[in-house]
Amino acid sequence: MGRWRSIGAATATLLVASGVAQKTPVEPPRPPLPDPAALSCQAAILIDEASGQVLFEKRADERMFPASTTKILTALLLIEHCRLDETVTAPEDIEKVGEASLHLKPGERLALDHLLAGIMLRSGNDASAAGATHAAGSVEKFAEMMNERARRLGCTGSQFKNPHGLHDPEHYTTARDLALIAREAMRYPEFREIVRSRKAVIDREPGQTDKLIVSRNKYLADDPTADGIKTGFTRPAGMCFVGSASRNGFRLISVVMKSDAWRSDTQDLIDWGFKTFSPTRLVSAGEPLAQTIKLANGEEITPVPVRSFRAMVTAGETPEPEIAIIPSAGLRLPIAPGQQVGHIEVKHADRVEKIPVVSRFAVGATPQKQARMPFALGAVAFLAFWAGLRSRRNRFFERTLGGRR
Which pLDDT tens digit goes with each residue over 324-372? Predict the structure, then answer.
């Protein structure tokens, strides 16, 4: 993001990150969760960040109040719709925002990247309102943007009325929806950089001395592999937390809502997930499938997936995904190598993935075309040789005769 001052860092970093480069799991690992009742929270979910595969859930579709975990969606929209170097001006009514913690003054100007630190680390309600007004013109218009973005992400149990999460009986979400929103936000490096950081120093206008921003996410200190994301609390919502940790080259995202022990609930989920599951590639891009597409005339097409399919599997599991090949409508010969010939539907656990497939070989070329191919290639090669010969001849005359022939 470019302009935050580092704190106690040996290199010119913007933030003090909480051990993001470390990949060593917490020791000793906790035992597997025997059942959802082992968690103190009312609702929870654990997903693989790369694929979105659900590894654990407890009342994941129950409507809950999200409190300040709302700000994950707020930050996502600000990153998507604004430049990080834009200047945000606090609106005249900014001091009316409840439980404001960044203490913005009317008319105060702040760079958007610094405002995001105030939103995600200190959980500034006033910072969220200022960002929403900057991006949409008003908090109400921004709430419409939030609901539209949530719908496009596949959220089916959410309704957002504000950008900060202050209690409103019509402002709610689910653990599953929060995981979808967090997964999307973690796609952005700018977002990841903020939420994995424990502290930041922001620039404010002269006279404003409140510049040190300390994260409220104490899970970052609990787990050296933790890299996010956001706490939330109101009395109706209870304690909520969306967590993230990366080990062994992959990341898990957890959500606990209305939790009596959010840190241990999160740690139990994360440790259990990394101990129980590992990523396995079930379909590889560029690797031909054993199944073929059979045409009416007896010809067969060997399909090749254009991208891979990865799933989380438990230790000792031998995954056998269901793969169905759906040929393209109106498929006709001849087929060229690399031509799309349909798609496959790969089913594993709770996921169904559609992946385009292309033909590995040429199929159905006529003998006449096949016979002409060597002649055509020879003609092209001869013409290329003659053109090169003429070019070298011309350069010879230019060097020796000054271009006169």
Answer: 999 999 898 999 999 999 999 999 887 899 999 999 999 986 544 443 3
Domain covering 16-280: architecture:
3-Layer(aba) Sandwich (3.40)
Tokens encoding 115: 């405002």
Closest to 284 measured CA to CA, from 308, 318, 319, 301: 308
User: Residue 256 and residue 121: Cα distance in Å, rounded?
Assistant: 18
Largest CA distance in the chain: 94
DSSP result, 358-369: EESS-BS--HHH
Q: Quick check: helix, strand or coil at residue 258? A: strand
* Per-residue model confidence as pLDDT tens digits over 16-73: 333 333 344 444 445 556 577 789 999 999 999 999 999 999 999 999 999 999 999 9
Q: Which residues pair with 243 in a beta bridge?
A: 229, 254
Catalytic positions, written as ranges: 68, 71, 123
Q: How many CB atoms lie within 10 A of CB 310?
A: 18
* Interstrand relation of 340-348 and 351-359 (parallel, antiparallel or unpaired): antiparallel
CATH 2.60.410 given to domain 284-359: yes
The alpha carbon torsion through 47, 48, 49, 54 (nearest 10 deg) reads: -40
Interior angle at CA 233, CA 225 and CA 57, nearest 5: 60
Q: Alpha-carbon distance 214 to 46, whole Å?
A: 26
